[in-house]
Amino acid sequence: xxxxxxxxxxxxxxxxxxxxSNFKLFSVCAPGGGTGRNRPYEISSFLRGDVLEVSRTHFxxxxxxxxxxxxxxLMPDILLALTNDKGRTQKVVxxxxxxxxxICKVASIRVDTVEDFAYGADILVNHLDETLKKKxxxxxxxxxxxxxQLGLIHYSLLWxxxxxxxxxxxxxxxxxxxxxxxxxxxxxxxxxQRSCLASAVVGLVSIVYTGxxxxxxxxxxxxxxCLWMMSG
Length: 232
What we know:
The chain has helices at residues 5-21, 86-89, 95-104, 114-118, 127-132, 139-148, 162-171, 177-191, 193-210, 214-230; strands spanning 51-55, 60-67, 70-76, 106-112, 123-125, 151-154. By secondary structure, it is an alpha+beta fold. Strands 5-1-2-3-4-6 form a 6-stranded antiparallel beta sheet. The longest helix is centred in the last third of the chain and has 18 residues, at 193-210.
């Protein structure tokens, strides 16, 4: 029985998209990943300059502890592009603000309380020291580096996320193993000409016949979106 080339290519593309879904794509913080901000934390055990790490369902977020219940962290936020009202932008960033911020690449390095930073999740302290096996700078220098970078910043999922921020402060080099893993996966996808062809064909069919139904248009939009997010 002869295989349908279009169905075969579409199936291959969907397999590649599923491969992406198994990685932690967004190294940013979104409320709702933990059990709630009311959870108490033993902040007396944190030292100024420590790297705090919180795990979510689909991502990991990092920050630098500054002391006095303050954490500096890089946070995408679309509201920063819409208003200068600090009373509004200093509130905890919701998903409605965060996701458009990631797409539009607007963010800031801001200071929040430990509770707002962690949002109920367990906190790992200096876990990156073990993961990356790198020698850290002195804690005071780490904290000072973080404080010097506070304010608006250009965001890039692969080149300038919260992991890049903390590794620069902690080790003097911008590193993001999560972003590197995602980048390698995307390269596998875009190298496959059959995936690109399937994307174009499915996109055209979805426009003509389905009015861009989300379950059909997603494969067509995924590759251009990934290329956009990969840019610096």
